[in-house]
Structure formats: structure tokens, C-alpha cells
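In the previous lecture we treated proteins in isolation. Real proteins rarely work alone, and many bind small molecules. This record shows how such a complex is specified: first the sequence, then the SMILES for pyridoxal-5'-phosphate.
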Amino acid sequence: MNYGAGNSDSPTPVIDLRSDTVTHPTQAMLDAMAAAVVGDDVYGEDPTVNALELRASELTGKQSALFVASGTMGNLVSVMAHVPRGGEIIAPAQSHVLRDEAANYSVVASAGVRPVIENHHGELPLDVVLESINDPGDLHGAPTSLVVIENCHAHSMSRPITPAYMRALRMALPDELPIHVDGARIFNASIALDTPVRDLLADADSAMFCLSKGLSAPVGSMVVGSEQFIARARRARKLIGGGMRQAGVLAAAGLVALGDDECATINRLVEDHRCAQLLAEGLSLQAGIVSPGGCAQAEGSDLDPARVVTNFVLFKVEGGSARRAAYLQALARQGIALMAYDHGQIRAVTHRGIDEQQIRAVIDASAVALRATA
Ligand SMILES: Cc1ncc(COP(=O)(O)O)c(C=O)c1O
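The predicted 3D structure, ligand included, written as C-alpha cells:
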């Protein structure tokens, strides 16, 4: 991935749409962090971390929860807790777990992977999943030990995965094969589908979700699952050096994000979805902007704004890699940062730092950049 900003000839971006990870903590979060009551979390004695873990369990309908430093760490400790050494993970070919976590499943967890090509909804075709499960009686194949689903599924335009799909997956799989959801943006899925997170995760054995993306906390993710699973994940977190001490300073921001008052950031994601929709509508009218292809949308058509239901807009610029680079540079000169994926797509992600006026400025700047590079 090319994160786009920081080129020496580009100004510091004033409209940064590379990711929702660029969000800064709210004032309510900073106040809560300053006032946090803390203890040693490795001993289980940090009341703020304990309160956050309880809140995450309540929201997800899972028995237990664990605060971790990042989404990557959350997925890794989940893999370590589910998969024995030499086990195999079935996961979407374009998932963060397979593409963007430095092959930690292999380096740290000694697991292998079986990528399955996802459809335009970010779902794994059930027949292919079933064919990908190795016969436990055949010594040649690694024991299939986990199925990973990404919800929202970033590379399909961050589409939400429905509870109906999760139910069908659960019913199709052998009972003993667990499902882990990389729910980095599960609250976006919840808003888009108007469905509580606990319903989205009802058929998952475990999940990870991020506090540090659209929810705007500075650091941290949550892992949720059964008590026994979380006990194993907690041990795995210690093993990789993720046991933190007075972590309540960080957890306090997460508690604000997941709260039930007007300071909670879980309730405002709908604004990001509205901005993404506005952006997609504007870009789709511009000659030179085309469908992102891949699992985001069929190749060779116009960008379809109806595909955008959360906070990601993926698209391509006609004319190949040279024009794409020039287009991104032309935007950067206007103070706008987008991100280029290695497969030629461009990604724009809306978040708390972006309003509708800025989206209109991006649409205008895109028209200028397309003309300048035509
Ligand atoms: C779908 C998905 N999963 C996991 C992660 C990892 O989160 P982190 O950057 O906190 O490690 C990301 C980060 O962007 C993500 O988009």
C-alpha cells in the first residue's frame, strides 16, 4: 500500500482521507484519560480496563473481553488462541489478516493459510469454504482450525456482512471449527445494517473490533469471546509483550467511545457514511473515474455509488498507473491525501475529521486533477 502523504513536494494534507485511523481523540476522551483511575492491568487490577472489557462484552453479547494495543494484535492473539501450531486458517484472499499483518499468523502463530476469493459482498462462497476444509484423516493437509470473516470487509468497499450470511456459514461448517470476525469496523456494519453488534456476532466464536478507527480513540482494540477463549488470548497477549500496566489511561478513551451518552462516538458513524455517499455520487459523475473492480465492484463499469454503504469509497482512474500517480499528486498539491492500493484502486475513507463541505472540496479538486492529467 502507498499511504500517499509525506511526499516532499506535497503540503501536509488538510483533508486526509487515507484512513479513519487518522482521527484524533475527542475532548471528552482527553478529559476521561486525564481523570482515569488506574491499576496494574497485568494483575487484572486496572478498574478502567476492567470496565471497558465489561462494556465490550455487553455490546457484543460475548462472555468475556480483552483490551489489546491494536487490531493487528487482537487478530494475532485470536489466531494464537484458536489455532494449534501447524493448523490452517481459511480467510478472505483480500483480508487484512492475510494481506496486511506481516504474515504474523505464520511468523508468530506457526499457522498456514488457505485464501478464499470473496464475492462482491465480502463474503466467502460457502461451497468453496467447505471444499477448503482439509480432511482430518488425510495426513497431507494441515488441520483446518479457523475461519476468518472481515466485517466490514474493506476491499469490497467496506461492505457489511449480514447476520443471515453468518448464520448460513455457521450452519454449513462443522461444529468444532470456530469463526473469528475481524470486526475492525463492526460498528460501521451495525449502523449500515441497522442491526446491533451482538446480532452481527451471534454466530461468531470470537471477534476483534477497533477503538482507534472511526470511533476516534487514540489507541486500542477489543477481543471478545468465551471465558476460556479470552483466557488463552490473554496468555497470548502476554507472550507477545502486549501486557500493559496502567492501561486505564488508554481504556478511558475507549469507554467514552462505547458509552451510552452524547459523547459516545459509536452513534456518529452515520455522518461518515453520509459523507462517503456524497463523495461517491460526486466522483461517479466525473469522466475518468471508473469502477474499482476486484471484489469491490465488477470491472469495466462506472463507479456505482449504491455500492457505498459505509465509510469507504474505492475507485480507479482511467489511464493506468502513471495517470493514477499523477492524479494523486495533483490532489496532494491541493492538500488532499487519498491512498493507493497495490492493485490499482484508490481509496477514500471518511471519518470524524471530515465534513460535507470538505467532501465538496474533494470532488472539485478531483475534477481539477482529472483535467490536469487527461
Ligand atoms: C479490517 C482491518 N483489520 C485490522 C486492522 C488492524 O488494525 P491496527 O491498525 O489497529 O493494527 C485494520 C487496520 O486498518 C483493518 O482495516
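Summary for your notes: Confidence is low (pLDDT under 50) at residues 3-8. The radius of gyration is 21 Å.
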